[in-house]
Specification:
By secondary structure, this protein is of the alpha+beta class. It has three helices and eight strands; from the N terminus they run H-E-E-H-E-H-E-E-E-E-E. Bound molecules: calcium ion (2 copies).
Length: 207
């Protein structure tokens, strides 16, 4: 009898214990699931932050490059790859180191995607004069097509534009002087076109 009673009590005890055990198991399971979810969420957030930081880091060199090119533009507005070109008044100028005839100089400038300089203002004359002191330099001015009718190579109207001829020039000496250059004083002189002297090329600032 006592044994039967013991079995009965055990059944009652198990019956009471089982739902509580199940509850605990579900609670633990839910806690675990919640923890996994939390860890996963934290991991995902961290990953997205790392990814954002990495893309920002990738942007940094390009910003740096931009500032370098900006600095280069300030130092070399005519392009860091062509430092022999000098900037003045929104244009770039090349002062040659070799001497040649006017036509060869004209072709040489064109080969460098430029033209013989058109001195159309006193400011530009001053700039050119300062750079060419004591040497002769061709400019883009000729009367080869019609004696006395001076023409700028870019079609700038000669008659209404600035001039800076040396006293007594142009004199077409020997009836053979059809090309203009800056004389040693910086003032203009007409001379025969096959004369060999330095030359000034001019081009817009590269974009
Ligand atoms: Ca002439
Ligand atoms: Ca002359």
């Amino acid at each position: 009898m006592e044994e039967e009673q013991l079995h009965e009590d055990l059944k009652v005890f198990k019956g009471k214990l089982q739902p509580q055990g199940l509850k605990s198991f579900i609670t633990v399971y839910l806690l675990l699931a919640f923890s996994f979810l939390l860890i996963f969420t934290l991991f995902a957030v961290s990953l997205s932050r790392v990814s954002a930081l990495s893309s920002k880091l990738q942007e940094l060199p390009s910003e740096q490059n931009h500032s370098v090119s900006g600095r280069d533009f300030l130092l070399f507005p005519c392009g860091p790859g062509s430092r022999e070109w000098e900037y003045f008044g929104g244009k770039c100028y090349y002062f040659s180191l070799t001497r040649m005839s006017w036509h060869k100089a004209k072709a040489q400038c064109e080969e460098m995607r430029s033209q013989l300089a058109v001195i159309d203002s006193y400011a530009k004359q001053n700039f050119a004069m300062f750079r060419t002191r004591n040497e002769r330099f061709w400019i883009g001015l000729t009367d080869q097509h019609s004696e006395g009718d001076w023409e700028w190579v870019d079609g700038t109207d000669y008659k209404t534009t600035f001039t800076f001829w040396k006293e007594g020039e142009p004199n077409n000496s020997g009836s053979n002087e059809d090309c203009a250059h800056l004389w040693v004083s910086g003032k203009w002189n007409d001379v025969y076109c096959t004369y060999e002297c330095y030359y000034i090329c001019e081009k817009p600032v590269p974009k």
